[in-house]
Every structure is written in structure tokens, then in C-alpha cells.
Amino acid sequence: MLILQECCTHPTGSYIVYAPVDELSINLLLAGGNPDHVALLPSGFTICRCGPTPTLNQDTTTDKVARNVETLVTVAFQILVDYVPTTKISVSLISIINNLIKCTSQKMIADLTTLCNP
């Protein structure tokens, strides 16, 4: 399994979009195969600035400069549950998906907190 990833940063925000792709599909595409036969379910997240322009605060006790920035983080997952769209989703699968979202969110918060408060 390979991960196809696109990242971008610009004045309005940053994003990372990724999709798992099996190696056979990549080899098929590299050999000139039809991309319509390769299923991609992209997931990812964006971090966008919201609110006023960031301000810098000088901490006179530590001589550190802190940047106050309000941001909005949007996380999106695409998960193939079943090929039949009318299939009912089991409660256990919903629990797995909820745990995935919760775990991902907690890790992002922990990483961003570490970056902002070294």
C-alpha cells in the first residue's frame, strides 16, 4: 500500500490531502493504464486562519515573542464501507470510525500544542 499525498501552503491556509493506493494500481497507471479503473478515496485536513491578523506579544519575563493566531482546522475522511450504497452501517463500524476521528483529532491537537508551546 502506498500513500499519494498533496500538500500546499498559501496566504489563506494550508492543506494536506492523501489517499491510500495499492501498488498494482500505481504500476498500472505508470504503464499508461486507464485512471478510471483506479479508486481514490482522498482524506485530509486544512488549517485556515480566521479572525484578525496575528499580533505579536512580547513576554518581558522570558524575552520570548508569542504570536496570537486564531485558526480553523477541518478534517475530512472518505471511507469505503460497502460497494452497495443502501447497505446499513453496523454499530461496531460507526464506533471504529468515531475512534479514528477522535484519535486523529487528539494527535493533531497534541502536535499543534507542542509546536505552539515548545
UniProtKB/TrEMBL annotation:
<dbReference type="InterPro" id="IPR042160">
    <property type="entry name" value="HD-Zip_IV"/>
</dbReference>
<dbReference type="Pfam" id="PF25797">
    <property type="entry name" value="PDF2_C"/>
</dbReference>
<dbReference type="InterPro" id="IPR057993">
    <property type="entry name" value="HD-Zip_IV_C"/>
</dbReference>
<feature type="domain" description="HD-Zip IV C-terminal">
    <location>
        <begin position="1"/>
        <end position="112"/>
    </location>
</feature>
<protein>
    <recommendedName>
        <fullName>HD-Zip IV C-terminal domain-containing protein</fullName>
    </recommendedName>
</protein>
